[in-house]
Design a protein that fits this description.
The structure is a homodimer. By secondary structure, chain A is mainly α. Chain A has helices at residues 10-51, 59-75, 80-102. The first copy, chain A, is elongated. Chain A starts with 9 loop residues before the first helix and ends with a helix. Chains A and B meet through helix 1, helix 2 and helix 3 of A and helix 1, helix 2 and helix 3 of B.
């Protein structure tokens, strides 16, 4: 008889770790490409606002956006506070980057 | 004859703005769902590391990860520094969140 394999052996755990890391690498690639496309869209919005008489910000839209993203996060079992924090960081970095680019 | 429409009229610009915002909303939904799945993966990694004798961090992997993401960003015309900053923020927030959850 062959040695019974334990599902919690360190070798199994290491194999599971390798699979999780491969998934994390795939997800990070999605994040990078989504950020790249989001950045192109916000650049286009910035160009539109700069060349036309459009309001620089829309507090009603921003409030609706945040409420929607928090709901999406909750539905996906992600802490809404965590989701809002990350999205706010991205939004602030995008604003900084656009400002630096214009300067 | 009807009034000739200017491609740069404010009405056109507003219509373009609406389209860009719809794309940004879609991209933000991708970001939220990708973050939710990434968080599930890192939770599984944390559980594996806690119950098995696995090294808590792997500097060689982390260095390789960052180099790969910077290259992906450059290929997608996204500033690699911006990409690294956002990913580092996500990684740090995930670590904080996991630590708070364990405490």
């Amino acid at each position: 008889m062959t040695q019974p394999s334990s599902p919690t052996s360190n070798q199994d755990a290491l194999a599971q770790l390798v699979r999780h890391r491969a998934s994390i690498d795939n997800l990070d690639a999605i994040l990078i490409h989504t950020l790249a496309e989001r950045f192109k869209q916000t650049q286009a919005v910035g160009a539109l606002k700069a060349t036309h008489d459009l309001p620089p910000s829309d507090p009603a839209r921003e409030e609706k956006q945040i409420a929607r993203l928090r709901q999406l996060a909750a539905d996906a079992e992600l802490d809404p506070d965590f989701a809002e924090k990350v999205l706010n960081f991205i939004i602030q970095e995008v604003i900084k980057h656009h400002q630096a680019h214009r300067a």
